[in-house]
């Protein structure tokens, strides 16, 4: 659930490398394939400005000159982060409103108007009221793909309530998708850290209040003594 979206929402600029993005899009079965003489293994992603950001370099890509960027090109990392950062910002805004129990209707409506998922096949099923339908997601850009497959599609399938399981760890700020709706922390280690930190803070508060009481008692005694 939210396989690509969650990883992008948590991504930092340092983690935003061709290698990492490639492993995310491949594990999630998303890739942009291009027609060409050399078919080999072609993998890249288009950004919103129509640039092809090649994730795996091969001769076919090397022969394309315009608007094609390779890992190692001077501006490549900037462009990749510009695009991934833009998707991240959008996802974080959506997640934050889900966390506040608020479904941002007009934002989702705007996304629906922009993306173009297609029904690619329609065939009879065992029950005529329940035909077999296949849909493709809008994969013109990685952004459209993530939004259409991981955000709009669940709403289309009446599964929007799953977004109530989106959480943000109060200890480290990581976004996560909770299997258990009561889950509060991203990991056992953050839960542990939080437990000990709160315990320490409580102990410190207690120590401070004891010190304060003692200070007050002493100053009272001092005043008495002066008289
Ligand atoms: Zn955490």
Give a brief description.
With 227 residues, the chain is of the alpha+beta class.
Which helices and strands appear, and what pairs or packs with what?
Elements: H1 3-9, H2 18-27, E1 43-46, E2 52-56, H3 59-63, E3 68-69, H4 76-99, H5 105-114, E4 118-123, E5 132-136, H6 142-156, E6 166-168, E7 175-177, H7 188-226
The chain binds zinc ion.
Zinc ion is lined by residues 169, 171-172, 174, 185-187, 190.
Query: What CATH architecture would you give?
Result: Orthogonal Bundle
Number of distinct helices: 7
Top-tier CATH class = Mainly Alpha
Total discrete domains: 1
Main β sheet profile:
3 strands, mixed
Structural class: alpha+beta
Q: Which kinds of small molecule does this entry bind, naming each only once?
A: zinc ion
Strand content: 5-15%
Q: N- to C-terminal separation? A: 74 Å
Mean pLDDT: 84
**Radius of gyration, Cα only, in angstroms?**
26 Å
Helical residue percent band: 40-55%
Would you identify the regions where 5 or more consecutive residues have pLDDT less than 50? 34-41
Shape: elongated
Strand order of the largest sheet: 1-2-3
So what's the oligomer here?
single chain
Q: Remind me, CATH topology? A: Jann2411-like fold
Name the helix and strand elements from N-terminus to C-terminus, one letter apiece: HHEEHEHHEEHEEH
Could you give the count of β-strands?
7
